[in-house]
């Protein structure tokens, strides 16, 4: 998770800006406009923070920054555990296969279900992205996390424990073929050496 966190935070910012640039370009507009959804979201945050600082004083600023970092870090923790080790394969045409339930982890545990409005049925969200969260379904054959989101998020903060719990599940999902899994580039050689003997087993 700690290697994933900076990549995803920075990558998400760059990706969001790039997508808005493309969208606005199709409308013959530049990116520096309030029609840019990235800028108007940041502007709303600035207005909210200025309002809170005006009411509570500058002393509230460290808490605002802390809650923002914790907020997006929790979001990225969920993103990490929902997709750990899973990857869409390339088809013969060179394009990636369509998103399907097999491309994300489910967690059909009652506490997560109650608090997160079926968010943990992420496989259905992948297959049908316009379906409302409250109506997301469980899928037979979709990979399942061994516990609910709260405990899995905590596990994710301790990489050796996380890998001990999750790596064997990723390997089982791909029928022992570790080369089909999504592996952190820096650890690829190490992972292939550890699990490579199980390819095809």
Q: What is the chain-wise order of helices and strands?
A: HHHHHHHH
Strand content: under 5%
Structural class category: mainly alpha
The total beta strand count reads 0
Note down, in words, how this protein is organized.
- The protein is mainly alpha-helical.
- The protein contains eight helices and no strands.
- The chain has helices spanning 4-26, 37-56, 61-83, 110-116, 122-127, 149-156, 159-173, 188-195.
Task: Provide a compact summary of the structure.
By secondary structure, the chain is mainly α.
Main attributes?
201 residues, globular, 8 helices
What's the helix and strand layout?
Layout: H1 4-26, H2 37-56, H3 61-83, H4 110-116, H5 122-127, H6 149-156, H7 159-173, H8 188-195
Helix pairs in contact: 1-3, 3-6
């Amino acid at each position: 998770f700690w290697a994933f966190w900076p990549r995803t935070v920075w990558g998400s910012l760059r990706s969001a800006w790039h997508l808005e640039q493309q969208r606005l370009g199709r409308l013959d507009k530049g990116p520096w406009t309030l029609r840019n959804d990235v800028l108007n979201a940041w502007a709303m945050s600035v207005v909210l923070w200025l309002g809170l600082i005006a009411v509570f004083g500058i002393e509230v600023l460290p808490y605002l920054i802390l809650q923002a970092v914790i907020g997006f870090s929790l979001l990225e923790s969920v993103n990490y555990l929902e997709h750990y080790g899973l990857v869409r394969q390339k088809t013969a045409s060179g394009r990636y296969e369509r998103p399907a339930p097999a491309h994300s982890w489910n967690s059909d545990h009652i506490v997560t279900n109650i608090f997160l409005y079926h968010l943990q049925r992420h496989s259905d969200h992948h297959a049908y992205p316009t379906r409302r969260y409250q109506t997301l379904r469980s899928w037979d054959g979709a990979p399942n996390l061994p516990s609910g989101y709260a405990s899995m998020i905590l596990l994710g903060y301790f990489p050796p424990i996380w890998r001990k719990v999750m790596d064997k599940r990723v390997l089982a999902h791909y029928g022992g073929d570790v080369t089909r899994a999504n592996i952190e580039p820096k650890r690829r050689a190490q992972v292939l050496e550890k699990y490579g003997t199980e390819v095809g087993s």
